[in-house]
Amino acid sequence: MISLAGLSIGELAAFVADHLNEKGIDVVLVGGACISIYSENAYSSFDLDFIATGMTSRQKIRSALAEINFVEEKRYFKNPETAYFIEFPSGPLAIGDEPPAEITTLRYSTGFLRLLSPTDSVKDRLAAYYHWKDQQSLEQAILVARDHPVDFNEILRWSTNEGFAEVFNSIRERLAPHQKES
Amino acid sequence: MLEPLLGSISCERVLVFLAAREEGYAREIASFFTTSLAPIQKQLDKLEAGGVLVSRTAGRTRLYNFNPRYPFLAELTAFLTKAISFYEQDLQDRLLLNRRRPRRRGKPL
After folding, report:
1. Domain B3-96 classified CATH 1.10.10.10?
2. CB contact under 8 A, B49 and A92
3. Mind spelling out the 3-state secondary structure of A16-47?
4. Chain A residues with CB inside 8 Å of B72's CB?
5. Is A1 a domain residue?
């Protein structure tokens, strides 16, 4: 098995996802780790949140992760070689009350990683900002939106559906300073 | 009433209490239903871990409410609201007609 020490968050997530995939467990990376990857660590997260997209038992996940030395401690899976830890939040895979529009696949030397798209990652962070007024989540959304192609019309549609169209319009300039509304 | 679906009477108590009151803490829910604290706390923990509830602290009390980001929240609350309407009138009243307006400390009855 390869050494996990020194792997970037993306490389490690791809390694874990590839291993789980070999065991018949399909996963999608969500949450702060996506922000970390898209922002090239301008925002650091040590928490790899995977959603298992099938009806996979916790026992099956536990056995598969044990093969790559990730051991369950309370709700988390930890490996002594790396500071990153893995969590499996309850599904479903959702942004607000909708499934994600698309899943992005990134290729690393360690494997393939399926994760939320930049647009859905921005929506995911905005959900925390909308519901809890969490400024850090807004800053993370900005980090992704400024460096990646993001569908702002889709985010407006979703924000409207969530009941936060006005809030989105008030922050749109911060998310995309050079984009004009369409 | 919902125990066959939810698997536990304590889970039903937690969910209907929060559907009716919007917010609550373990001892308050246990006291309302005159039941033990431990099974109520266990259900609160389980529902929070599952993303159905979120919690925050106020002083030394941990307050729970529904997670606004839970994808089935609208359907779940509609389901619980309907269930509450099937409870005996006395229980519905006790769940729904609690005092919510402020009351100054030390005010005589």
Report:
1. yes
2. no
3. HHHHHHHCCCCEEEECHHHHHHHCCCCCCCCE
4. 97
5. no
B92, two tokens: 């519905």
* Identity of the residue in A75, A90, A97 whose CB atom sits nearest the CB atom of B74: A97
Nearest to A137 by CA among A35, A1, A68: A35
- Where exactly are the structural domains of chain B? 3-96
**Residue A19 sits in which domain range?**
9-116
In a domain, residue A182? The reply is: no
ipTM summary value = 0.70
Neighboring chain A residues of B51 at a CB cutoff of 8 Å: 89-90
- Confirm if A87 and A76 have CB atoms less than 8 A apart: yes
Write out chain A's pLDDT in tens, 182 residues.
788 998 999 999 999 999 999 999 999 999 999 999 999 988 888 999 999 998 889 999 999 999 999 999 988 999 999 999 999 998 789 998 889 989 999 999 999 999 999 999 999 999 999 999 999 999 999 999 998 999 999 999 999 999 999 999 999 999 987 665 54
Contact B74 A98 (CB under 8 A): no
pTM of the model: 0.85
Rounded to the nearest angstrom, the minimum Cα separation between A110 and chain B is: 30
Q: Cβ of A131 and B50 within 8 Å?
A: no
